[in-house]
Amino acid sequence: MGRSGDVPRASETLGTDDRGCPILHVDMDAFFASVEIRRRPELRGRPVVVGGSSRGVVAAASYEARRYGVRSAMPMTQALRRCPHLVVLPPDRQAYSTASSQVMTILRDITPLVEPLSLDEAFLDVSGAVRRLGPPAAIAAAIRARVLGELGLTCSVGVGPSKFVAKLASARCKPDGLLVVPAARVLEFLHPLPVTVLWGVGQRTAEQLHRIGVRTVADLSRTPVDTLQRAVGQAVAAHLHELAAGRDPRPVSPDEAEKSISADHTTETDLVSTAEVRRELLRLADEVARRVRSRGLAARTVGIKVRFADFTTITRVRSLDGWTDSSHVIFRTAAGLVDALGLDRPRIRLVGVKCENLRAAGSVVHQLSFDDLAAEQQAAQSAQSTPPAPRTPPPALDAALDATRARFGSGSLGYASLLGAADRGDGGGRRAR
Known about the structure:
Layout: H1 10-14, E1 23-28, H2 31-39, E2 48-51, E3 58-61, H3 63-66, H4 76-82, E4 87-89, H5 93-110, E5 114-118, E6 121-125, H6 130-133, H7 136-151, E7 155-160, H8 163-172, E8 178-180, H9 186-190, H10 203-211, H11 217-222, H12 225-232, H13 234-244, E9 260-271, H14 274-294, E10 297-308, E11 313-324, H15 327-339, E12 348-360, H16 370-381, H17 395-408, H18 421-424
Parallel strand pairs: 2-4, 7-8
Antiparallel strand pairs: 1-6, 1-7, 2-3, 5-6, 9-12, 10-11, 10-12
């Protein structure tokens, strides 16, 4: 089911019998890089990565970049050594979030049983849509056509009898492909694959399995359970034995709650002053808060991550008195956590902010916290010449910022303290390579 002239897809060798295959896994192709290339058509065909500073890592790589061995999570310095003419673009998470919402809207037009795994992938159970839209393979083809036609992006879709098989299928047919794994041929599909494709098999578990001669899924399926138990433990052995047999009973769960939303940034040079750290915290807190609001959520817990020049990493969290989606509250809490570290002349290479303990924002009442009320009372009792404590901006301000950015772009409006040299027009700031 590939495009004309493509190497034959795996789907052509497995067949297209999609009976008993109600589960789809939709995976966007090189999503962050594809969104950037969509608005910069001149970069099409060139090796492109999305990432932070030269000291950071690759967040996403186009398929042209992957031909040079460039991969996600690779240090940027290593990526540039492998491909000196690499085009490096700074991440625009608001653009990716917007594109993700558009993709999920298309998927939910097909069925309400959509379980997003991240911004760029989701499971669907289309068993209830077959009578209206046709068999699963036809639905998968229609999804690919809509995503391309409406959004100018490509995706790969795996179709199978379970979530596990569908996810493997989408990975097998990338990029821009469709693979059906018929229910009767699941073992034929699974058994030749390396054991590392099984969920739960990381580096350590793989080493334990390799020591007992298990290198493929077929090897694992032939290994007695008690032998597996001695190698990896009872629970893991039972889990892997079921997957090797193609059994995965987990349903698609559309109400799966998002556990946390975070953002971090490795800086070009070490941050050595409180002002620099707070500036980075403000940038990240605003980004995280926007993503919290865009999902219709509110947070009860705010956390930070600080990585020093020697790669020592500290994390801290604080639970709030109430729920919030306010950029100001999230920043103020994160800044308080950093202040409590008592850093003396820090040398910091990475700063991160996260929100967790999330819930739907519909019942959240925006009000001043006890700290704000106490500050106001103290200010009122002091001399008139004493400046009042800063108040939390009203929710309407965040809403206005979000609306403006949605219409005119993520860089159209922001905090004055985040304006850098590039914004002032004096030639500084980060540039894409």
